[in-house]
């Protein structure tokens, strides 16, 4: 009962999110593999999708063990600019295309090095155009990036695999117990039937004997 209610709730929530529009804000991945490319995700949905707006994007980076953030990337009406030599020729825009109304500010790091481990922060500077005024907001998101030599599996995936085995083994044990139980029940039922049949016969003989005796007694 509780489980089905939860499922229903989850279904309704996802339908609600779907009906509200396609924009969702999933968290970025946080583990990159050295030497490969990596997409640093950063999404900020406009709360009022009917209002037109423009946004510019800045990315900042603070290396692991460093004290300060520095500016690495800008994306505005003039296009992308890489602001730091450490990232020169290594960053591509993966965000909203052909629209000044940016909601996806993801960037793609090419050829990730261990020095890219650290904290990334993206800022949306957004201006919303209402009839009589403009409204500017700043939204920021943080991504903690770890660079590893080889891809490790996410904990969620390991946990779900273990759960799958536990479930399968559990079901099989349950099936086995059920089979043993049924087998025992059937065999006792069989024995009982035999015993009952024997009892019935004995009783029949006994009562016959009794009848005879009674007959004898009555006859006397
Ligand atoms: C992001 O950009 C990289 C490099 O330009 C490209 O290989 C990759 O397919 C892009 N990914 C997405 C999701 O747009
Ligand atoms: C990636 O970086 C390493 C070391 O920084 C370099 O040796 C290698 O050539 C680079 N690979 C590409 C495809 O740029
Ligand atoms: C990483 O940082 C160290 C120390 O700042 C530097 O010596 C090294 O050349 C850097 N490596 C790369 C691949 O940028």
Automatic annotation (TrEMBL):
Cross-referenced InterPro entries: Ig-like_dom (IPR007110), Ig-like_dom_sf (IPR036179), Ig-like_fold (IPR013783), Ig_V-set (IPR013106), Na_channel_b1/b3 (IPR027098)
Predominant location category: membrane
Annotated PANTHER family: SODIUM CHANNEL SUBUNIT BETA-1, SODIUM CHANNEL SUBUNIT BETA-1 AND 3
GO molecular function, one term: transmembrane transporter binding
Record note on quaternary structure: A voltage-gated sodium (Nav) channel consists of an ion-conducting pore-forming alpha subunit functional on its own that is regulated by one or more beta subunits. Forms homodimers and homotrimers. SCN3B is non-covalently associated with alpha subunits and induces the formation of alpha subunit oligomers, including trimers. Interacts with SCN5A/Nav1.5; regulatory subunit of SCN5A/Nav1.5. Interacts with SCN7A/Nav2.1; probable regulatory subunit of SCN7A/Nav2.1. Interacts with SCN10A; regulatory subunit of SCN10A/Nav1.8.
Places the protein is found: Cell membrane; Cell projection, Axon; Perikaryon
Similarity annotation: Belongs to the sodium channel auxiliary subunit SCN1B (TC 8.A.17) family.
Lineage: Eukaryota, Metazoa, Chordata, Craniata, Vertebrata
TM annotation in the entry: 162-183
Function field: Regulatory subunit of multiple voltage-gated sodium (Nav) channels directly mediating the depolarization of excitable membranes. Navs, also called VGSCs (voltage-gated sodium channels) or VDSCs (voltage-dependent sodium channels), operate by switching between closed and open conformations depending on the voltage difference across the membrane. In the open conformation they allow Na(+) ions to selectively pass through the pore, along their electrochemical gradient.
Keyword set, alphabetical order: Cell membrane, Cell projection, Disulfide bond, Glycoprotein, Immunoglobulin domain, Ion channel, Ion transport, Membrane, Signal, Sodium, Sodium channel, Sodium transport, Transmembrane, Transmembrane helix, Transport, Voltage-gated channel
Range of residues in the leader sequence: 1-21
Start and end residues of each Ig-like domain: 26-140
Topological category with respect to the lipid bilayer: Single-pass type I membrane protein
Gene Ontology annotations for the cellular component aspect, listed alphabetically: axon; perikaryon; voltage-gated sodium channel complex
Superkingdom classification of source: Eukaryota
Protein name, entry field: Sodium channel regulatory subunit beta-1
Entry's Gene Ontology BP terms: cardiac muscle cell action potential involved in contraction; regulation of heart rate by cardiac conduction
């Amino acid at each position: 009962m509780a489980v089905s209610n939860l499922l229903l709730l989850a279904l309704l929530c996802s339908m609600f999110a779907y009906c509200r529009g396609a924009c969702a804000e999933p968290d970025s991945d946080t583990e990159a593999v050295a030497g490969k490319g990596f997409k640093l995700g950063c999404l900020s949905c406009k709360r009022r999708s009917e209002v037109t707006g423009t946004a510019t994007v800045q990315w900042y980076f603070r290396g692991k063990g460093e004290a300060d953030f520095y500016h690495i990337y800008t994306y505005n009406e003039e296009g992308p600019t890489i602001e730091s030599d450490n990232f020169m020729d290594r960053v591509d825009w993966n965000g909203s295309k052909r629209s000044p109304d940016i909601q996806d500010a993801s960037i793609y790091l090419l050829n990730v090095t261990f020095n890219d481990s650290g904290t990334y922060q993206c800022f949306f500077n957004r201006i919303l155009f209402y009839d009589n005024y403009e409204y500017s907001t700043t939204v920021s998101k943080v991504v903690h990036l770890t660079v590893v030599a080889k891809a490790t599996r996410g904990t969620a995936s390991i946990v779900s695999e273990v759960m799958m085995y536990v479930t399968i083994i559990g079901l099989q044990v349950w099936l086995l117990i059920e089979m043993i139980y049924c087998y025992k029940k059937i065999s006792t039922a069989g024995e009982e039937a035999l015993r009952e049949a024997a009892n019935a016969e004995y009783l029949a003989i006994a009562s016959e004997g009794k009848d005879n005796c009674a007959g004898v007694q009555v006859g006397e």
